[in-house]
Amino acid sequence: MDKSPMEAEATIYLLCGKDNKVYLLKLQKGNTSWDISSFNLGFEPRFIFSARKSSKLCSANPNLPMSIFEYNGSAVVAMVGKNCFAIASDRRLGVQLQTIATDFQRISKIHDRVFIGLSGLATDVQTLYQRLVFRHKLYQLREERDMKPETFASLVSAILYEKRFGPYLCQPVIAGLGEDDKPFICTMDSIGAKELAKDFVVSGTASESLYGACEAMYKPDMEAEELFETISQALLSSVDRDCLSGWGGHVYVVTPTEIKERILKGRMD
Amino acid sequence: MECVLGLVGKGFAILLHKNNEDKIMLLDSHKLVAASGEPGDLSNLGVQFTEYVQKNVSLYKFRNGIPLTTAAAANFTRGELATALRKLSFASVRPSVKNPYSLNILMAGYDNESGASLYYIDYIATLHKVDKGAFGYGSYFSLSTMDRHYRSDMSVEEAIELVDKCILEIRSRLVVAPPNFVIKIVDKDGARDYAWRQSVQFDLCCVVTFAFVGRLFLTSLFSSKINIEDQANDVFLQNLTQNNDNISKQIYPKHKSNHMKNTKRSK
């Protein structure tokens, strides 16, 4: 803890294979030349998977400085259907590369028609959730009705921007049914920049895979059952490619008449 | 190095702390809390913070006439840690210095309504209710052992067997393994010392706490100042110290690597 978790280790690794050997090339901060190590494989290497970002893998150091957003690991996605929406998250709670629990709740209900899924640092997920529930309950007492999802999204954005220079390190995904049962989804970054979308929103460590999977699988105007299938497949296939999230999934499918909560069992790792 | 372990069994929870000082504190009659943290940072801080929580738990009981539930106490502790995490310390010379506690906490308790429970609280105030948990370097070994052997309805004897397996694992695999362990248990009859696992008697303190929830008992390891009550320890102890001796006497051949060749190539 003597080093700030925000400092990335400035080393670039390249992994390549040829002629019965696997080569690891390393360019360290401050050096102008590559260090090459090679390992004699004994056979022609066929597939090589390498880390996408230099700060994530390629090191056995248990105190590898990851981004603080990747400290606990998370994946949240929300999709819009026909008069319904679905919001899903993974269930892993970890501390860097160690898994602590496999039943962590990332999606919370604000009221029957608005759900918020929070990805990022777990402590801020819990703190932010408590603050938002408090604000919503106060709103309910004063206005004697539930908050609309658009209003709630603005509230979250304002609360996050309040902490502009010491932010809550989480990215919320908000999903709700607005007037006339029109579904509403939005996501924002950790300082409250809203991104409204008409089809799906993603956040978390697996967000890049999620973008790809959702884009491929999404169709407009899906019914509740089909939406559940789509979002589940997108979530499970994306978290399979991310070591920091996974251990199943938690899916809420919300229609004007009912809320269905389902637990998914995927690759439990 | 400190390790804290805990697990939940059938109506009880165990917390195990390796230490020569008793770092597992009674919050009230049916709650136990074990705190561990960065070495050098812990001894005063941990005691201060857990005492603070203990006094507030008692205050609630005096004011309201009923004791706090384990969940409530855990959430209170989490709230204190979360507040301190981003609080600016105005008392210091530089007003922008933050003052977070670097304490990892395992809290075990028994409630009549909800039975035994174990809460995992990180040093950055991540709260989660778990069946088995561990902190410190010992966690890398004991979590796997517990994953393999733990069941949700273990009896006290089975749980102690599992605890002993974890201790054995820590002692044989961890270079900086703490020599002494204290086991404390909490069940419907309250929180109490259960047993010791001592291999060395001296006044240094190292804490290993692991807890699992069964009938809620907390194990903690104590210093040599306290007499060992459980005589069964002696045989167990001999075996363990025996194992330790054997391992330290083994001489591992120096590893010569012919495969990795480091070459520097300038651009």
Lay out the secondary structure.
The complex is a heterodimer of chains A (269) and B (267).
Chain A: E1 11-18, E2 21-28, E3 34-40, E4 75-80, E5 85-90, E6 93-95, E7 98-101, E8 107-111, E9 114-120, H1 122-143, H2 149-162, E10 170-177, E11 183-188, E12 194-197, E13 200-204, H3 207-217, H4 224-239, E14 249-254, E15 259-264
Chain B: E1 4-18, E2 24-28, E3 31-37, H1 43-64, H2 70-85, E4 103-111, E5 115-121, E6 127-130, E7 132-135, H3 139-149, H4 156-173, E8 180-187, E9 190-198, E10 209-215, E11 217-219, H5 232-249, E12 261-265
Helix pairs in contact in B: 3-4
Keywords (chain A): Cytoplasm, Nucleus, Proteasome
Organism (chain A): Brassica cretica
Family (chain A): Belongs to the peptidase T1B family.
Overview of the structural elements:
The complex is a heterodimer of chains A (269) and B (267). Chain A is an alpha+beta fold. Helix content of chain A is 23%, strand content 33%. In chain A, the strands form four sheets. Chain A has a five-stranded antiparallel β-sheet with strand order 13-4-5-14-15, covered by helices on one side. A five-stranded antiparallel β-sheet of chain A has the order 8-9-10-11-12, covered by helices on one side. Chain A has a three-stranded antiparallel β-sheet with strand order 1-2-3, with no helix packed on it. In chain A, strand 10 and strand 11 form a beta hairpin. The longest helix of chain A is centred in the middle third of the chain and has 22 residues. The N terminus of chain A is likely disordered. Chain B is an alpha+beta fold. Chain B folds into two domains: 196 residues, Glutamine Phosphoribosylpyrophosphate, subunit 1, domain 1 (4-Layer Sandwich); 61 residues. Helix content of chain B is 32%, strand content 31%. Chain B has five helices and twelve strands. In chain B, the strands form two sheets. In chain B, strands 1, 7, 8, 9, 10 and 11 form a six-stranded antiparallel β-sheet that branches. Chain B has a five-stranded antiparallel β-sheet with strand order 2-3-4-5-6, with helices on one face. In chain B, strand 2 and strand 3 form a beta hairpin. In chain B, helix 3 packs antiparallel against helix 4. The longest helix of chain B is centred in the N-terminal third of the chain and has 22 residues. About 20% of the residues of chain B have low confidence. At the A-B interface, strand 3, strand 7 and helix 1 of A face helix 2, strand 6, helix 3 and strand 12 of B.
